[in-house]
């Protein structure tokens, strides 16, 4: 259930959620789908351009051995090939790709619990507690307690909610006991609450359960991340430069082999239609017909 972020939500979730978050320097550089595509197409160009049908024509357009080596250098840096294993251990222990996916799954489950039981508890209080005191009872139970947007803030809000429910059971007030009994009958049993406590404990422990990662200075991690990011940007410029040049001289079939042009497949009523993103205009010694237009640069 989507929730609007309240003014208090942006301030309250404060310290506890932030304290368990890994530092910026230790987080992995997560590649987008476009960046993954860039790496794949650059690799195809670097490998296939060495074949006899392509290399001589590419040389005539200025594609030198130095340019080829530069492409490989940028690709290796951009893909993280030269990152040390110690860096990867630190990133995995600080919320890397696998750990990050598991953390998000847990947050979503806790958020679902919050979306389910906060409104249910409020409605049960207003039904079970006598009219003359239910407003005060509700205000006391939900004091400084609001539903939070999906994110670290739900760790604190749900933890507080569970402690308030536990307090109902221990309270000598008859209305408190009736509210607790009704919540239990509706499904908020001790077993269900323990399940959520375990999820919160895993979220708060973070990567601690993975064991002690190697000690790597934050400055070293940040330098490696920056180097990889700069290499991605450099590789994009390098690829777009040569893709623009070589599309003008190679046939569509050759462009696909070199990764300069991609193939789009779409289902049609009469069967499957294959569309090729057209290259730039240009003469081609052996082109398979004239093509016009340009595939957009990778950005």
Summarize this structure as a short list of keywords or feature phrases.
single chain; 299 residues; mainly alpha; 2 domains; two-stranded antiparallel ribbon; 62% helix; disordered N terminus
**Assembly state of the chains shown:** single chain
Going across the biggest sheet, name each strand in turn.
1-2
Average pLDDT figure = 76
Strand share of the residues?
A: under 5%
Helix coverage percent of residues?
55-70%
Taking all Cα atoms into account, the compactness measure Rg is: 29 Å
Number of domains: 2
State the helix count.
Answer: 13
Distance between the termini: 35 Å
Query: How is the biggest beta sheet arranged?
Result: 2 strands, antiparallel
Give the SSE order as H and E letters.
HHHHHHHHHHHHHEE
Structural class: mainly alpha
Beta strand count: 2
Low-confidence stretches: 1-27, 207-213, 267-296
Quick synopsis:
With about 300 residues, the protein is mainly alpha-helical. Helix content is about 60%, strand content about 5%.
Task: Please give a structural write-up.
This protein is mainly alpha-helical. It has two domains: 7-25 and 101-209, no CATH class; 34-92 and 215-276, no CATH class. Helix content is 62%, strand content 4%. The chain has 13 helices and two strands, in the order αααααααααααααββ. The protein has helices spanning 7-11, 14-19, 33-48, 52-60, 65-78, 85-93, 97-128, 131-141, 153-170, 174-185, 190-205, 218-247, 252-258, and strands spanning 263-268, 271-276. A two-stranded antiparallel ribbon has the order 1-2. A hairpin with a 2-residue loop joins strand 1 (263-268) and strand 2. It is elongated. 24% of the residues are buried. Residues 1-27, 207-213 and 267-296 have low confidence and may be disordered.
């Amino acid at each position: 259930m989507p929730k609007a972020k309240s003014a208090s939500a942006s301030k309250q979730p404060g310290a506890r959620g932030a304290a368990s978050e890994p530092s910026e320097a230790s987080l992995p550089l997560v590649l987008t789908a476009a960046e993954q595509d860039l790496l794949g197409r650059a690799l195809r160009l670097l490998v296939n351009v060495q074949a006899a049908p392509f290399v001589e024509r590419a040389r005539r357009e200025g594609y030198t051995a130095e340019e080829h080596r530069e492409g490989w250098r940028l690709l290796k840096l951009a893909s993280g090939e030269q990152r040390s294993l110690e860096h990867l251990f630190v990133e995995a222990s600080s919320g890397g790709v696998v750990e990050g996916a598991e953390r998000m799954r847990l947050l979503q489950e806790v958020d679902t619990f919050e979306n389910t039981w906060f409104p249910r508890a409020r409605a049960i209080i207003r039904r079970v507690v006598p009219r003359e005191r239910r407003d005060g009872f509700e205000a006391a139970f939900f004091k400084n307690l609001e539903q939070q947007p999906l994110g670290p803030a739900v760790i604190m809000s749900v933890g507080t909610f569970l402690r308030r429910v536990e307090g109902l059971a221990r309270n000598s007030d008859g209305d408190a006991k009736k509210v607790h009994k009704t919540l239990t009958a509706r499904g908020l049993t001790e077993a269900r609450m323990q399940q959520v406590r375990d999820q919160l404990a895993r979220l708060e422990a973070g990567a601690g359960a993975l064991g002690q990662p190697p000690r790597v200075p934050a400055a070293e991690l940040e330098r490696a991340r920056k180097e990889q990011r700069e290499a991605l940007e450099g590789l994009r410029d390098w690829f777009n430069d040569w893709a623009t040049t070589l599309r003008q001289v190679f046939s569509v079939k050759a462009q696909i082999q070199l990764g300069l042009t991609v193939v789009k497949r779409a289902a049609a009523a009469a069967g499957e239609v294959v569309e090729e993103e057209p290259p730039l205009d240009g003469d081609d010694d052996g082109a398979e017909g004239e093509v016009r237009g340009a595939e957009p640069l990778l950005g």
